[in-house]
Amino acid sequence: MNTYQKIRLSERKNYIIRFIVLIVILYIARLFYLQIISEEYKVYAQINAFEFLTEYPPRGYIYDRNGKLLVMNESSYDLMVVPKESKGCDTNALCEILEISKDEYIKRMTKLSLPPNSPRKQGVFEKQLSVKTYAALQEKMYRFKGFYVQVRSIRKYPRPIAAHALGYIGEVSKAKAEKDAYYKEGDYIGVSGIEYSYEKYLRGKKGVRIVIKDVHNREVGRFMDGKYDTLAIPGKPLYSSIDAELQEYGEYLMQNKKGSIVAIEPSTGEILCLVSSPTYDPNLLVGGKERNKNFAKLLSDTINVPLLNRATQAMYPPGSTFKLIDALIGQKDGVLFSNTIYPCARGYPPMGGHPKCHPHPPVDLEGSIQYSCNSYYSYVFKSIVENYKMWGNFLNAYQHWRDAVMSFGIGRKLNYDIPYEKPGNVPSIQYYDKVFGKNRWFAGTVISLGIGQAELTAVPIQLANVMCVIANKGYYYIPHIVKGIGNEKYLDSIYKVKHYVYVTEKEYYDRVINGMEKVVEAGTATLAKMKDIKICGKTGTAENPHGKDHALFFAFAPKENPQIAISVIVENSGFGGVWAAPIASLMIEKYLKRKISRPELEKRMVEANLIKANIEYIKSGMPDKKKKEKNRKRTRR
Amino acid sequence: MRSENNKYFENIDWISVLIYAILVLMGWFNIYAAVYDEQHQSIFDISQKYGKQMIWIITAFLIAFTILIIDAEFYTVFAYGFYIFFLILNIAVPFLGKEIKGSRSWFRLGEFGIQPAEFMKFATNLALAKFLSNQNLSVISTKRYKTFADYILMYKNTLITFLIIGTPMSIILFLQNETGLAITFTSFIIILYREGLSVNYIIAGFIFVLLFILSLLIHQIYFYITFMIIFIVWFYFGKHSWKVFFTKLLYVLLASLFVFSSNFIYSKLQPHQRGRIDVLLGRGEINLKKEGYNVHQSKIAIGSGGLWGKGYLKGTQTKYNFVPEQDTDFIFCTVGEEWGFVGSTIVLILFTFLIIRIITLAERQRSEFSRIYGYGVASVLFFHLVINVGMTIGILPVIGIPLPFFSYGGSSLWEFTILLFIFLKLDANRLYVLR
């Protein structure tokens, strides 16, 4: 080889070095892309190695107004398994205890082994073991390799009362979980009652524990020794305004009857009891397999509809109880005075004795309340909606009447803290225009509104609220079932505001209250009379197409310094004074005296099975009802 | 007067030794990080891989020391001796050794294993240096070739050279089933290029690789059409003679034949090898849980490192074994994740610096033997670096070869130590070599 060639070849060194440097630069560029530009791999790394475990806080307890526990939490036991570790498990014995077949066992195992589960990850094999199963399992646990029992917290009700008011919790819906970032599918959320309205406080705050997983999805440690973990904050306790004893007693009285009892403390708007009957044991709906079965059963009971909260969702014609509102509006509008007397000929004379009335002596304002004269209030209603001097024409006057009624909290939502409230109905002008045609309806056409019939409907809690208004002589507080949140007993200021109604003059109220006192003393509700407590009340009897009339009674007591306002509705029982008034009276006694002085009355109320009675009544063809219907049609005409 | 001790270490290139030591120690720490778990925290724990690696490192240092005190002449004289010795050992291994994961290339001594194929590299390098130092590979000649025998004579040296490389390669590939190790022998092409091999061979090699890749991605008919056009244009603008016509036709037919057979070659590959190629080329459905897993996890580990890395022993992907083989072939992931872009770049630059340093040293040799051997060292190191890192960052298919000095394993560490230190000894001795 000559020198020339050698020099030429040694130049190749430079090409080689350039090539090497080029490749290395290429690699560094690639690293730059992977490590600095691209975010994708950092995300993958997180998914790979971290698991964000949710720590569930205990849900807040609920107490009654006297500090008695209404809702607490209880441990429930889930059987968990790590499929990979379950080799050598005594399958036969396990299947026997759980009462499942071998195929079912294999099916569940397979499901837990496939994505998104993993053979190395724990999964729920059976939810909410019964105490019996748990005990049986615990004994033989050593034979079930890979299985263990995990404790979870579920709701527990020491007293099986106030199911409707307290509500229940259930798994969050998919739609809600997608909308609200707080929830994941499978989380629990308040579905009804207080559990729903106060979900935000009861749930507390979920904590997060970041764990590091290895390639087999096993937990190998905590990220940064738990530096970024957040503790779960327990839910706040709630102090309900419910009086557990009163609630329990109300449910006791209402057994075998449909209807509701709502009691409110007039001076605060606190709901003392919220009975809806028929009711159910809230412990039936606490979760697991049993829960679904029970729920389906309750849901399918279309005769009793136990899941319906009648106190807030059933709309009844207020019947004669409505007369009090007429009396107040009439006085305020200057069309009714304490000495006003209207004729009654066993009915409303101008319309040929309809609406009908019962025999009673001639009455002034107080007496009209005492004897609940239908004719009288047909006149009063007519005088209000035909007050042309004040309103110019009928429609204006009607609108005024409607607004005045609604100011009492009827026919509109009160926005209290129990979900799914129904507004009731005070028919609008538009509605009647549609039914009868424009300018084709007059006071006479809708005269039964004056006695709380026709399309007028109210919800039991609204009637109790009307009682509060009368007891307070002109205002109410928005009813609420929770009087304090958390240990500091926080109460939203909206519940501390007095809401004044259309009538605020005390003397108007005094007359009405005197009349109400006479109702109990010597009027339509003498069964409610008590020796030492002055009850002011008003009966009502609401006609309805479902059988006998609904019996209504609402009252407050004592007359001076009212402490409880109550509305009682007993469906399909007949006259208000017979069933609703005694129950209200017993409730008032229970609340004010804490003991019952009339055991016979109590016994009669408890033992009556009005649901059965009504079914028999319907079977017999509702004899007096048909007659009434006929009359009613004529009245309309 | 020089002391005896001084004589052995006179003229040693301490810069290379220093980089070598740094890389070996970095490797050790990264193996510790890759294998690390809370139970075994001592880096000296012999029951763990990092403990074993420590023993390998100590013995490697001893080997390096021994190589430096032996006379440089020894390696020149016994070059073929080494070659033949390791060739025999490699032929024997499949019959005497134990089969591990389908490869028959290991001698087991208790917990420690030796892989003779690794040592074949420095032996081949010695033999190549010995053979080429007396020959001329360049085909710059004025002589006219008439007969076929003339051609044989002309390409005789090239043929022998390819035999020296090809024999161990075939043994390792076919007898031992170690594809990765076999492929590393192609790195010697760099020596041959330096020593005068026509650049056409390299171009041809690139064209074949390119055609192979393209033929997996594009339908074959497009190749044939393209080749036809190339041939027509090529001939039209070239000399118009029958000889030229047939030569050019031959090239085109050869290329066509290769394209035609490349699918056949591909189908003859082992399934996991096909999978690796598919992953790289993004062909078909890649299952990230199966064939795509390694590279995907490797990219995640490196990619999640960021600029500065997650810190030593803090790499979650490394620590919790998401990356398979992360102490051996995928050790670079540990570097990427825990030391970030900065750390990985430093490692790459250290390697590059060492390789270029060796080339520079090689070029200053008076002896052709030393120069060729030096180029061999640089080639092997560079080839391992490119293949290994290329696979972890997803630009080359997965080929299981270690990252020099870093990866866990005695054989590879010893091999690279021997490879490097023989050259350093030769270099130290350069002044005593007569031209």
Describe this entry's structure for a reader.
The complex is a heterodimer of chains A (637) and B (435). Chain A has 637 residues and is of the alpha+beta class. Among the domains of chain A are: 8-38; 244-294 and 308-636, Beta-lactamase, CATH 3.40.710.10. Chain A is built from 25 helices and 18 strands. Chain A is elongated and about 140 Å long. Residues 633-637 of chain A have low confidence and may be disordered. Chain B has one domain (4-195, 299-432). Chain B contains 18 helices and three strands. In chain B, strands 1-2-3 form a three-stranded antiparallel β-sheet, covered by helices on one side. The mean pLDDT of chain B is 85. The interface between A and B is large, with 36 and 44 residues.
From the N-terminal CA to the C-terminal CA of chain A, the straight-line distance is 132 Å
* Amount of beta strand of chain A: 15-25%
Total tally of structural domains of chain B: 1
- Rg from alpha-carbon coordinates of chain B: 24 Å
* Estimated structural class of chain A: alpha+beta
Mean pLDDT of chain B: 85
Largest sheet of chain B: 3 strands, antiparallel
Q: Which CATH class of the domain at 244-294 and 308-636 in chain A is shown?
A: Alpha Beta
What's the β-strand tally of chain B? 3
At CATH level 2, the architecture of the domain at 244-294 and 308-636 in chain A is 3-Layer(aba) Sandwich
- CATH topology of the domain at 244-294 and 308-636 in chain A, by name, is Beta-lactamase
Number-wise, the strands of chain A total: 18
* Through-space gap between termini of chain B: 26 Å
Strand content of chain B: under 5%
Overall spatial form of chain A: elongated
The biggest sheet of chain A, with number of strands, parallel, antiparallel or mixed sense and barrel status, is: 6 strands, mixed
Shape of chain B: globular
CATH superfamily label of the domain at 244-294 and 308-636 in chain A = DD-peptidase/beta-lactamase superfamily
Instruction: Work out the helix count of chain A.
Output: 25
Structural class designation of chain B: mainly alpha
- The radius of gyration computed from the alpha-carbon positions of chain A, rounded to a whole number of angstroms, is 35 Å
